[in-house]
Amino acid sequence: MKKISGSSLSRRQFLASTAVSILFTSTSGSLARSFSGQLPWSPFAGDPPTPVRPGPWLFFTHDEAQTIEAIVDRIIPADDLSIGGKDAGCAVFIDRQLAGFFGNFERLYMKGPFAKGFPQQGLQSPILPTQRYRAGLAALDDYCRTTFSGRAFSALALPEQDKVLQELENGSIDLDDADTKTFFELVLQNTMEGFFADPIYGGNKDMVSWKMIGFPGARYDYRDFVGNHNQPYPLPPVSIMGRGDWGGKG
Amino acid sequence: MARKLPRKDVVIVGLGWTGSILANELTDEGLDVVAIERGPWRNTATDFNVGYMQDELRYAIRKDLFLRPAQSTLTFRNNVEQEALPIREFGSFLPGNGVGGAGVHWNGQTWRFLPSDFRCRSHLSERYGEKFIPDELTIQDWGVTYEEMEPYYDKFEYLAGVSGKAGNINGKRQDGGNPFEGARARDYPLPPLDMTYGPKLFAEGAREAGYHPFPQPAANASRSYTNTLGVEMGACSYCGFCERFGCANYSKASPQTTILPVLMRKPNFECRTNSEVVRINLDRSGKRATGVTYVDAQGQEWEQPGDLVLVCAFILFNVHMLLVSGIGKPYDPKTATGTVGRNYTYQTYAGVEMFFDNKNFNPFIATGAIGQCIDDFNGDNFDHSGLDFVGGAGIMCASTNARPIATRPTPPGTPRWGSTWKKATTDNYLSSLYLNAQGGSYATRGNYLDLDPTYKDRLGRPLLRMTFDFPDNDIRMISYVTRKAEEIAKVMTPRQIVPHYRTKPYSVVPYQSTHNIGGAIMGSDPKTSVVNKYLQSWDVPNVFVIGASAFPQNAGYNPTDTVGALAYKAADAIRNLYLKNEGPLVPA
Predict the structure, then answer these.
(1) Most buried residue among B71, B156, B415, B505 by CB atoms closer than 10 A?
(2) Which InterPro entries does the UniProt record give (chain A) (predicted)?
């Protein structure tokens, strides 16, 4: 094997003064790049999350929003431990998630052919979360109107809502046009994500869930407290956006 | 049509741990090296930023830093009777992507394998007789001994700044360390991490039960550290955002925190990102690689000629690369012939959950590799006479995080929503503990990797196909060790103990471990291995295949220390043997 010569090295060192070269021109955000000679670095090159802003629904229709708000408010009911899922922002969280890459499974392998498979082979359906919510919420309201003399899910009494959700969970209701069990599991998963994720994504208002369980959030240094065994951690939680009493939007 | 680029001395496929180690060693030798990485460039300040890295949804749930199945995945079935279907969403294991590879998102649990692990079949035959080994197992020796590995383990541990306590220095027992470990030349570069409350209670319970607890070796720096390349690491801050995250604190060892600051300054190294190697090219004889062909993010195909090709991707994609390049004979389980894809193994996990009253573990104060462990039931550290299995598992109390979307334990029978769920979640969040049993995984004739006949990746290549289920031996092994963990749990007197036994079938849905192992295994016989003891291909001697793909079966430990050691071992062989005499380093 030929080892590179000294003159070749110095030529390359010279070239390295332009350390990052774009190999191949393109307007794409994920360029193929070549790096040599030094650590690539440019100021402010980070990729921070974009805070969810209040405002109109991005995915849900008015009717869908009413239904999902009612659902998240039973999954996480208001009680002496916390506000309910609706006030915590779980429906807004789900709306913004469905409007983003999650809603269309952009990151997943969605090539066919699609087959049912065994449970241990995992997700095999071509149905996207956006489609599942659209069909599932409509089918749920249809079921409720048929069963409860014309009332949609959000118009049911709270014990009735709980009963319907329990029946969705245990499979004793079979909604038309929707894989009922998968739909329920998706809603449950997304509601919990909204309740426990950083408030920057629209749920967990005022870090309500973190205060409830005692999670300090986005703190990054516990060295002073590692050795304080079996003692409550004294500081309140903090979000990526900070905390309300900092004057920010936490 | 591929455009041809100027020749390089060395072409590396993938810039994770092994690619970075090999690149740094071979550029020191004066070679001109290019690494081709299918994912993006990543560095600490930009991509693992302290202002927003503590984001469970983005990094742990939506898996921002991992390989996205849309880019590449594999298909899976339990056995040849089933039809394999694509893993559309990664669950059971999470391959890395981008510069740093899986070294970005690992926990830092940095274990050496036992001396007996490297002589697995010989050791068990000598101790119990050949007939004691269950027929279903195709376990074999590595073709290398622990003593040969020791200097390379040492080299990786001092690169990575591992925090721990030696149990055996040059054959002399050390109080407080692992009494079962192989002899090491010197202690760890850093003292153990400060211990949190849960592991401390476990260590007390284990000691009371007659076992030998010790702190888990951690590539989370317990103090600031300047490594063997002169790169500085910061002391770990116990933030609890380790696995699935990049470290914002320069405390967890990764290529970014230990090698790249040196490697990237070298003029004879080049890294090309967002560029995926399609295949290794062979000359007409099929016995010599001429380089690789890769596709960049814009879809342009390039041919990169090179004298030496190092396959340094994640293990599954190492095997895939050999299969799509036609290097070596694919394994056929019907005839038990061929080698590529043979002896695919995994890791066998089980655990015991404990719920306490009046205890506060502050479980969010955590690092990826903090914890206390016992090795009394790992490997062949205990007498298997009269037992119906071989192998073993470590038992550890190693709470790595309490990020609440995924980690909020409740006792069995608790509803999953509503006020009752909320109360149980609040009552148990700070006061529950988990003991892991991390077991080895032994190879069988029917567990293997090959190419899928139906499903293709975005470049039109067949996906890799995984055929795997837990061997009955391993289920018996992990059940035995889980019962031992339950006994220790009882000594710790929680309110409630909930064992989680491992059962068949293996599922790709719940997360278990990213310790995928084998498929391009090392050995001393080309009929039963893909690479020799230097990780050199038996079939194409200017190709080396580096990584956990080389383990003939898995031990009851995390693989990275052994992966790093093997990378240094291969680099040493290339520098001191191969470059002097290009060709097979071991006669076939």
Answers:
(1) B156
(2) Gluconate_2DH_su3, TAT_signal
Residues 203 to 242 of A: which have CB under 8 A from any B CB? Answer: 209-210, 212-223, 225-233, 240
Kind and range of the H or E element at B12? strand B8-13
Q: Give the pLDDT confidence score for residue A62 in this predicted structure.
A: 97
- For the annotated catalytic residues of B, the residue numbers are 515
Q: What is the pLDDT of residues B115-174, one digit of tens each?
A: 999 999 999 999 999 999 999 999 999 999 999 999 999 999 999 999 999 999 999 999
ipTM: 0.96
Is A4 an interface residue toward B (CB < 8 Å)? Answer: yes
Place of tokens 């490594």: B227
The residue to which tokens 């071979």 are assigned? B26
Residues B548/B377, Cβ–Cβ less than 8 Å: no
Q: Residue B515 and residue A141: Cα distance in Å, rounded?
A: 45
Question: Residue B265 and residue A113: Cβ atoms within 8 Å?
Answer: no
Residue B578 tokens, joined: 């191969």
A74, A200, A215 ranked by CB distance to B364: nearest: A215
| Domain range list for chain B | 3-578
Omega before A113 cis (within 30°)?
yes
- B120: enclosing H helix or E strand: helix B120-128
CA B64, distance to chain mean position in Å, is 20
Domain B3-578: CATH superfamily is FAD/NAD(P)-binding domain (3.50.50.60)
